Model the fold of this input.
Amino acid sequence: MGRHTRMRGAVVAAALLPALAGCSGTAGSGAPDGKPSGAASSPPADAKPAGGEVLPGMVGVAVARTQLAGLKVAPAGTMAGYSRDKFTHWVQQGNKCDTREVILKRDGTDVKQDAECRAVSGTWKSLYDGVVVTDAAKMDIDHMVPLAEGWRSGAAGWDAARRKAFANDLTHPQLLAVTAASNRSKGDQSPDLWQPPDKASWCLYGRAWTTVKSTYGLTVTEPEKNMLTTMLDTCAS
Done:
């Protein structure tokens, strides 16, 4: 799973959401340059979710179930050798904006930025807890699949370029803005250990988590897979 609060975890983004997050030697399939399969070589800094979704690169529940069935089930790996510094973030995306500021802009409403691309006003609705925030400082950017969780499920075997792509992915549903409180509550936990308190978000959360793991060829544990199935079962048919 899935943060830029200057405390812990991973940071993410979602249209009309808020936040940053407190976030196997088997590497997923990807191009030689470290990009995940299907990822744009240079995602547009203003990448927008499609079709009313709050996150980019989302798939329907039927596709998510197929993705989940295709994930390799394996025990969680160790944290040996892990460091957040091995996942370079937040990188510059142009116009003085780094990945965090791009997500705050993307996921907020009426966001105004200063000359340094810092969000100075706007409104964000946090996916995880449904809280509405008007102060960007109270938002974290969460990594849907936290950096540490990625490490335990395959990223330990990646090269630096692939880890950088994973930590700054604007094309897939890996980053979203959420409240700092919800992001820090999540930490680096997988869905079997932490679920968004707002159960209305479970369908989206399960689809997003599954899509990111499928995109990067990461593994899942049996309890994790079971909870993802439960989350997908909350989706309207």
User: Anything to note?
Assistant: The first strand starts at residue 109 and ends at 113. Helices lie at 61-70, 99-107, 147-152, 160-167, 180-186, 202-216, 222-232. The CA atoms of residues 73 and 220 lie 5 Å apart. The chain has one domain: 61-232.
